[in-house]
Amino acid sequence: CERQDFRASKQRLLVVANRLPVSAVRRDDDSWHLEISVGGLVSALLGVKEFETRWIGWAGVNVPDEIGQKTLIKALAEKRCIPVFLDEEIVHQYYNGYCNNILWPLFHYLGLPQEDRLATTRSFQSQFDAYKKANEMFAAVVNEHYVEGDVVWCHDYHLMFLPKCLKDSNRNMKVGWFLHTPFPSSEIHRTLPSRTQLLRSVLAADLVGLVNFSPGLDSPGSLNIARVLSLPVLTCRKSWLVKLMIENFLQPKELFFHTYDYARHFVSACTRILGLEGTPEGVEDQGKLTRVAAFPIGIDSDRFIRALELPQVQDHMKELKERFAGRKVMLGVDRLDMIKGLPQKILAFEKFLEENPQWRDKVVLLQIAVPTRTDVPEYQRLTSQVHEIVGRINGRFGTLTTVPIHHLDRSLDFHSLCALYAVTDVALVTSLRDGMNLVSYEFVACQASKKGVLILSEFAGAAQSLGAGAILVNPWNVTEVASSIGYALNMPADEREKRHHHNFVHVTSHTSQEWAATFVSELNDTIVEAQLRTRQ
Ligand code: G6P
C-alpha cells in the first residue's frame, strides 16, 4: 500500500526520443528480442528513476504488419516503452538523411554535405519534409498517451520540430526540449536552409536545455576550478552567480573562458537569425519567454561502481590483467562516428610508437568501435578508413605474437565494459566535437582503485567539467596527442591520484538522476512563472 502511495506521488514523465532505450529484433518465430540501445542519451536516461517514466520512440526496426506491431507494443509495454512505427522510406529520408547526414555533422562543425548546400536541391527538401512528417508521427503518439499534468520531455536533434507540433495541438502541455549534441555557433547554424523553421519550432517549448556549462570554464591543473565545478548544478546554470563566485573565490588570471558555449550559441542564433530578443533567462518573442539554460548531463555512477564488486566482473578483470600482463592498457570506446576522431587518435598512437621505440611492446591500445548508422555512406567510408589505418600500424609494429592495436567493431556488454574500464591505465577520448561524452564519465567512475589517466578532447563538453583532472588535448593535433600519451603513461602516482580525485568527485556528484530532476523541476517552475506573468 505504501509503495502504491509512493508511486502515485511520482510525476509522470513522457520521455520522447528518436530511439527507445531498447532496440527490437524479430526472431524467426515472430517473437521479439529486446536489446539495450547504445549512445550517450540512453546511458544518461537509464539512470532516471524519480519519475513515473514512459518512453516514446522508434524501436530501430521496420514492422510493416499489424500483428507484428501489436506484439511489439505488448513486449515494449513491459519496459514502459511505447513505439513509434516508421517505415523504411521515412527512416531513410528522416533518420539516415536529414538527422544523420545533415543536422548531426552540421551541429558538430563538420558542415553541410556538398550536394545539399543549395536549399533548392530535391534531396534536401524531401529529407526535410520527411523530418517534419516523422516529427508529426511522434507527436501523434505523444497525444495518444498524454494525460493532463504529464511533463513531456523531447530529446535531441531528431525532434526539433516536435515542440511546435505538440503545442499546436495542446498549448497547455508542459513541453521541454533538450539537445544532447553541441549547438554550433550561429554562423554555422545559419548555413542550414531550414534554420528559421527549426529555431521557431524549438522556441515553442517552455524550456530549452543544452548540455554544457554557461559560461564554460576550465583551467587544467587548477584546484580553484574544482571548487566552482563541484557546486550544485543549479548554481552553475545561473551565469551571474558563476561570475560572482569567480570574482570572490578565484584569481581572474587563473581562468580561461571557453569561447564556445552551446546555450549562448542557441540564444545568439535566435537573436541574429530570427531577430528576437535574448535575455539572461532565454529568448523573448512578443512577450513570450522561452527559458534557455545549460543542464550538464551525468551518468548513473553508482551502477558502475556497484558492478565492479560483482564476481563475474572481478573474474573478467583478472583475465584481462593476465592477458595484458607487463603492458600498459590504453582504451578507446566510441561509436564508429566521424565526430569521434578515430583516425586522428590512431595516427597519434602510431606517432607515439614511432617516437618511443622503448614502449612498442609495453603498451596496447584497445579500441572498441561500436558500429552505428551503417546505412549512411559517410559512416561506411569511415569504417574502411579506420580498418586500413589499424591494419597498417599493426603490420608495421606487430610481432608474431602481439599487435599494438586491438580493434573491435562491436559493442561490449555492460559487465565486460566495466571490467575493461577498471583495468585501463590511460583512456583516450579524442572526439573532434562532442556534446558531453559520457564514456569519459564511465571511465572515471570505474577507476577508484587504479586511478588511471584520462586524455580528453578540449572539444568534448566533458572538458568543461573534467578539464582539471584530465589531460586536455586538441584532437586535430596529432603531435600533441602523441606527446600526451607519453606524459600519461609516465605520470607519477601522486599526480594521477589528484587528477582522479577531482574527476571522481564530479562524476559521482553530478549524476543523471540529478540532471533529470533539475530539468523537470525547472520546467515546472518555468510554467508556474509564465502563468503568474500572464495573470499580472
Ligand atoms: C548520440 C545522440 C543520440 C543517439 C546516439 C546513438 O548520443 O545524441 O540521440 O541516440 O548518438 O545514435 P543512433 O543514431 O544509433 O541513435
UniProtKB/TrEMBL annotation:
Domain of life: Eukaryota
Coiled coil residues, start to end: none
Name by which UniProt lists this protein: Alpha,alpha-trehalose-phosphate synthase (UDP-forming)
Organism: Hibiscus sabdariffa
Residues of the full protein shown: 77 to 612 of 971
